[in-house]
Structure formats: structure tokens, C-alpha cells
Write a structure and sequence with these properties.
The chain is mainly alpha-helical. It has one domain. The protein has helices spanning 4-22, 27-45. Helix 1 (4-22) packs antiparallel against helix 2 (27-45). The N and C termini lie far apart (38 Å). This is Spo0E family sporulation regulatory protein-aspartic acid phosphatase. It comes from Metabacillus endolithicus.
Length: 56
Amino acid sequence: MKSLDAVIEEYRKRMFSIAKEDGISAQRTLVASQNLDEILNIEMNKNKPSPINKKK
């Protein structure tokens, strides 16, 4: 299984490749960017404390 960092790098490379082929504002580039954002959000949120475990 790939690490999340490896997946992020793969998506980043794919997005740049698509942008180079289709242009920065092309629909495929936008979708690739959104996919990368989703993966990055997972990475950023995995270290956040759970609100369930939060003490008042």
C-alpha cells in the first residue's frame, strides 16, 4: 500500500502533466486540482484531534 505522501506526489505530478497538455484553466486540470485538494485535506485533517475526544 502506498503512503499518503506518495499518493499526494502522484496526484501532483498528474495535475501538472494535465495542465501542461491542456492548459491551466482546462476542465481536466480543474478536476485534477480538486482531486489533489481532497487528498491534501485528508492529510491535513488526520492529525487534528477528534471533537469527540475534546474536553470541555
